Each structure stands twice: as C-alpha cells, then as structure tokens.
Model the fold of this input.
Amino acid sequence: MKGFIKKIEQINFGLMSPEDIRAMSVVTVETPDTYEDDGFPIEKGLMDPRLGVIDPSLVCRTCGFRGGDCQGHFGSIELARPVIHIGFGDVIHKILRSTCNECGRVLLSQDQIDDFTQQIREAMDNKESLNAILKEVYRVAKRELKTLPEDDEEIDPKHCCPHCGAPQEAISLDKPVTIRQGDYKLTASEVRERLERISDEDSFVLGVNPEVARPEWLVLTVLPVPPVTVRPSITLDTGERSEDDLTHKLVDILRINQRLLENMEAGAPQLIVEDLWELLQYHVTTYFDNEASGVPPARHRSGRPLKTLTQRLKGKEGRFRSNLSGKRVNFSARTVISPDPNISINEVGVPEMIAKEVTVPVYVNEWNIEEMKQYIKNGPEQHPGANYVIRTDGRKIRVRGDETKELILEQLEPGFIIERHLKDGDMVLFNRQPSLHRMSMMAHEVRVLPYKTFRLNLCVCPPYNADFDGDEMNMHVFQTDESRAEAKSLMRVQEHILSPRFGGPIIGAIHDHISGAYLLTRDGVEFTEEQALQIIRKSHLKLPELKAGQWVLKQDPDFDEDSYIFKEKGEMWTGKELFSLLLPNDLNLSYSAEISKCPVVYPEEDATVVIKNGILVQGVIDESAYGSFSGKILDKIVKEYGPGRAKEFLDRSTDLAICGIMKTGITTSLNDEEIPEEAQDRINEHLDKKMAEVDKLVESYEEGYLQALPGRSLEETLEMKIMQVLGEARDMSGSIAENYLTMGKQYPEDSYDHVMAVENHSVVMARTGARASMLNLTQITACVGQQAVRGGRIERGYLNRTLPHFKKGELGAKAKGFVHSSYKSGLDPIEFFFHAMGGREGLVDTAIRTAQSGYMQRRLVNALQDLQVKSSGLVTDNQGNVIQTMFGEDGVDPAKSDFGKAANLDKLISEIRMESGMEGK
Amino acid sequence: MKIDIQDHMLVPKHEIMTEEEISEEFSDVDYDFKDLPKIRSEDPVVKAIGAEPGNVLRITRESQTAGVFITYRIVEG
Done:
C-alpha cells in the first residue's frame, strides 16, 4: 500500500477565473500544429513537452518525472476575442435579464436587495438549498418590455430600472449561445462588459458569490488546454500518427484564433472579423459539447462526429457509467457454459485453462509450506501450480523456468504470498448478465474439469435464466479471506434456493428431472432388488441398512424399534420406495400433484401426494413436488431442514430422476400428436358449427338487429362476440383433442397390461410440468386458433380488408386471421401469413419490453440503492430519513415467507393433524 | 356543496397526534420523529383536518401485507 499523499475532504464546483487558468497554465499555446516533420513536438504547440509526457523513456520538462509518473500539466490559449461558454448560456441570459441594460444594477429596489441578501445569507449559514430563493429573485427582477415604446409614449415604471429609470428592452437567448436585446445581437464582448458592470453586492443577490466567482467569468477569454495525457496520440502500425479528437478540436480553435488575431491587427473590415469571431465561437462550443442542439456537430475528415469533452463523460459509454461505476477487473474469466448433471448445485466446472490463469493469493505458513513448495515446483504450466510469488519485502516474482523456481524454493518462508492456481473447493463468484436480481451472482465451489466450458448443474439455470445455446458467463475469484467467508455464508447457491421474489424455491428440478421422477414414482413401477440397488448406487444415495434379512427403509423419528419400516430382502421395490429414501425421516406433507390438473388420472390416488414420516405413501412426484418456482417438498425441506439438507435433497433427487428416466426411456415424435379420424371429424364439425355462429353474428349486425352491449358501439359488440365465439371454438377443439391425448392407460379396463406399455411422452411432459403445455399440443393436433395483432383480430393490410382474397368489409373468421388448421395438418398460405403477423408482433414486443423494463429497473435501483433495513425493521435512507417504520409494513422477509404470506394456516393445521395421527385432508 | 374528502373510500384515516401521544409513541424507537416522512401543508387532507406545520399525523390504512398498518407523517413547514 502506498501512503497517503493528500486526503480529499471537500470538492467545490464553481467558475474558474482567467487568472486561475493562466496561473495553472505551464505554456501558452499559440501554434496550431503538433509535431515537426522530424517527429519532435513543436514548442508552444499542442504537444509541447511541458504539457506532460506519455512515453516512459521521456522526462517531463515541467515536473521532471518520466512518462507514466507525470500526471500532465495544463496549458492555455489566449482567445483573440471573448466567447460564451456553452454551459452557461442560460445563466448569462438569466443574469442579463435581471440587470439594467443601461446602468447594470439589479432590477430590484434597494429594500428587495437587502431582503434577498438576508435570505440567502441565512440559507447559506444553515446549509440549505438556495434554489427556491434564487428562483424568486429571477422572477421578481424580470421587468422586460416586449417592444420599446415610441418616443413620447408613457412607460409603465414596472418596466423600468428602479435605479436609473431606463426602460428595459427584452433580452432573449437563442440557444445555445446567442444573446439578443430586442433585434440586436449582443457580441460576447458586449455581454462580458455588461457582466463586468454588475457590482459585487448585486451579483450576490443573483446567486454569484463574489468571494468565489465573478459573473464575467462566464464568458471565456482564456481557454485551458488539457495535458497530453488526457488526449494521447496513437501511433498506427504503419507508423502514422493519429491524434485524439480533442487535439483536432484544439487545432481548429487555434487556427481560427490565429487568423482572427491577424485580421484584427491588419485592420480588416468589421464583417470579416465578425465572421471569424463567430467561427471561433462555434469551435469553442463544439469543443465543449459536440451534441448541443442548434449547433451542427463538428466532424472528423471521415465524416464521423468528433467525441469532445461532454461526449467523454455522458451516457452509457461515458466516463461515469463505463469507467467509474463499471470498471473492468482482474481475476475474472468468461466462457461458454454447458450442463453437467453430475456436479452439485453448489459447484461450477472450471476449465483447466482458466484455473491456471486466475489465481488465489495464499499466505505461506509453517503448516502449508510443503503444499506451497509443490505448487511452485509445478509452476505455471502444470495444474495445481503457482504463477507468482510475493516476497516478504513486497517484491512480486513470476514463477518461470527451473532456475527461478529453485531460487524461490530456497528463499520460501512463512510470510510469503503464493498466487496459486484455482483448485477444487475454492469459492468463486459466478454471474450471468443481465444481473437483474441477487440470484444472478452466486458463489460456487470450483471443480476443475477438462475442456473449455464452464459447467453448471441444471437446477441453477432458472435463477441465472441460462440455457446452453451459446450463453456465456463470468467468474470472479475472491482475493481475501474476508470476501471468501462473506460470500460463503451469504452468496452460496444453497442459500438462494428460496427466492425473495415469491417466497418459494427458484432453484429446483427442470425438464427431464420432472418427467423422470414421474416415470419413476407413478403407481405400478417396480424394480427387482438388483435393479433397485443399482439405481441407489448410481444416484449416490446411502445404501439402506440390512438388519436380519430386512432392509431398514425408514426408522421412526422417535427411534421406536417397532415403528421401523422394513422391507423383506428379495422383494420387488417400487419407485415410491426408492424416492422415499431421499426424504427426511420425519417429513409429513400432503398436496395435490401437478397431474391433478389432468381431467382423468390413472390411478386416481397418484394425483394426491401423501408423505408420512418420510415415506411417499401415495401420489406421484412431478413439478409440484420439486420443480423450480413451485416445488412443495423442496420448499418444505429448505424451510424446515435448512439449505444444506435441501441442497443434498436436490442433488440426489435429480440424480435419482435421471436414473428413473434412463430405466424407462423417454422419447417423443409427431406420432404423439396423432388423433383418430373420428376425433378430427368431431373437431371439424365443431369448427363448422362455430363458423356458422360467427356468420350469424355478422348477419345480425348487417341486418341491424344486433344489440349493442352497454358502453360499447355496435362494431365493438360484434367484435367482442366474434372473439368470444372463436375463443370457444379453439378451446373446444382443444379439449376434444385432449380427450385423445392421454399419458397412457386411463382406466383399469384399458387393455394395456403394463403402464409402460403404450404411452404418450409428449403428454407426460406437458402434464407433469416438465416442458410444453397442453395448449402447445392441441395447437399441433387440433386447431391453432385466432391470430392477434395489437390485442385484437387482424385489421390491417389493404383498404377495408386484410388481403385481396376477401371482399371489402368482410368480417368473417377466416378474413380476420382465424387459423382453422393445426400445425400438423399445415397452414394454408393465408393462415400462414396471419400467423407470421402475430409471430412478428411477439418478437417486436419482447425486444421493446426488455429495453423498457431495463430502464425502469435502472431508475428503481438508483432510487433505492442507499436504503437500509435496521434490525428493528426500520427502513431509512442514508440521511436518516424514515422510509418505512416496518419493512414491507409486516416486517416479513419474503424469501422466508410462505409464498409471500407470513404463514399459511391451512397448511400448518393439516401438518399438525398428520403428525398427531389423524389423516389430514 | 363541499365534499369532505375524508369520507372518500380511498382516503385513509388521518389523525393529529397530541404532544403526549408523540412522546409516548416515539420514546422507544430507534429514530427521531422529526425524520418521519413529510406531508405537505397544502395536502388536501392536512387542510381538511386542520393540521399545522410540525404536527405529526397518525395514518391508519389498509395494507396488502399487514392487514392494517399505522404510519406517521410530519407536516412540512
């Protein structure tokens, strides 16, 4: 750590006087050129060596430091004529409007001046805002006249100066820098003269503190020239020098300044001088802000607008948002992500290549010195090695080559810091943009793996919103023990299973985990003992104890020998028994499974899940059990047994589900969306009926006997009724198809002797909540339905019709975008066109929505970022102002709530019932 | 005819707190009651109940999370 040189206690923003600028300046720049032909900088040019040096081989003529250590020095340009500073156009305008055009006094009576002076002094003493008072000053001191009166006309004294009595002609500002009195354009010199005339007392009332600044400093006479370190020139590969945009702009200013000076000295006509003056004003204006409205932007030779001072600071790519709030950092890595179901949710697979590049600093002590020696021996090339060593004297040595290694090994002693490679078990921060919520950055444990992608467990995809179609993620390595410890207790993945957004698990099973668990745990699934043990082994479960020829499946939480649950050796195992091995011994729970939303469930009991003392007594495991966003069992385990147990449950249950899905196999094809001809006939018949209904509605409208609904026009009524009929048409055709799209055996009398015999995996996935929905399936099978643009039927296209295939003013279903066909049967060209219209709107909307919600979030975060919650529940801002006396008004941490509610009484009662032996239902 | 805005369904109950109530209510909290959120003296409810700058109002309103929530506001000025 370098020692303090100076400590900043206060920063004042204000005006800089011409004297200040000259005092700060080390050189008065006069030559509008940079380098001589021989490559040396010109004296008094824009690259004058006194302005600082960049090249480390050169020495600064001002401070004597070498390039890199010299921070640069300001120069100055003496402007031939004053110019108005673009940032102060409206300030100057306000001041001139409030002062007399003749005598220069403030247009306030002496009493008013005294009164306001008093007010301002008080506010300054109390460190209060002056804005309100100054606004009032400028409002009261406005006495302008629209037009000057004719010679002998009477003038209202309220338009005259209270001091000299002169009538006040209106001063106007022509943005950004032109100031007019009536029709006469004031030159910058005249503006400056007027500002000079204002007395110190008057300027104080106008908000300019004479102890710090003078109004005339708002008009520039000297321009500061930033040091070369601020505007470095780049040497291209071809050896050509390319100057910074600021340098280009300064060259322009100097060139015009020089010409103006010469013309003035030669006594050139007023017109020419004024033209040059205006040009100088333009160049100085664009030097400060090249995006000012009303000023054409200055361009580079290539036509690209120059990036001048304001552009360097402003906006997303500006200094603040890009370089100060958002710095690039060391010890970070980024690569493509891919899935790995074999690592824990707490882990992240890190490619060896990255593990050898980013390092962890470790203090050498007498207990780890041998380990550290091994790292140094391995060096930077071989995996658990080291890249750098920091000696006790603070020198950093790169581990490279056998000689250095030996030298380091000889010197190595406690107190050294070894920057060793990342290895298994290290904590790292893992992140995927956009970082919208706290689960977008979580701490993972490292697993160094071969190949070049980051590997992550599938359960952490929902919080990161990640998939594997080319997504990349970032990793950051902690550099201190404090940060590591803090991250481990606050940011670890397992601590974020419950989302503060809705008080349920956001990390949970997805896709194949869910269909797999269903296929494993539904009724009738049996395994031989050998198969069962294989599954147990493969999913890393603990093997149940074998006692006197019986497997101890579960023991009662009270350790009562009689209530052990045994399983005879040699018996068949059910999938439910296998799943029960994962559950805590005293878990009691009952809820409706996701498949209970299915009209027919076979066997019926599978739809209601009952877990008693950790045994899955009935019901099937699906999305409602342990899926992300909705898993009930998972939710209960985190809340009652803690995140550690939940992590273990999630890791093991997903393993088990994958074993389950591999025993059964899962496959899908278009055959899954096949329905018998009779069903197709019913659907067509039904659609025809609905079309007739629509035609009848249209007819009744055209005949004039359609009744308008309250508050709606006749056309709106018709449109609503048609939409309703068409909605029913799609829904009905969907539910007809659904009757044929079943998971498999539906009733005991169905002819399949084994549940696994004939089944429809598309429907299994939709019904268990693994992926897709029944709507997707019925759109494939039966009927796609109405296409919408802007929330209604399709209206746009040709005059009074959507396409030339229809009559003008036609209102039928087909003419406004109803798609009768199914995706499987295929859309006709007209339907296809409407479908593309609806699809395009969807794409445009998502693009716009992300941009809009991003900006909304940015504003919300900026408004809330400094708020803090005290342990009493009090919410305050950083000034101590109370925002809420109780966080969220109920003081509940949403992540620890029951899906947003403080407590769910029904659930609690049914749990107590189950535990006390009364069947809870 | 003038409508009493306090009768409107969307206007929660505002009461002016007495000195005793203030000292009792804010005696054991970890903030100064002067840091409470402000309400403008031109606020229609403030005018309706005749509160003066510096008064503390007790506002009893329905809350989505807590059922009924009591909050306080200090009249600006």
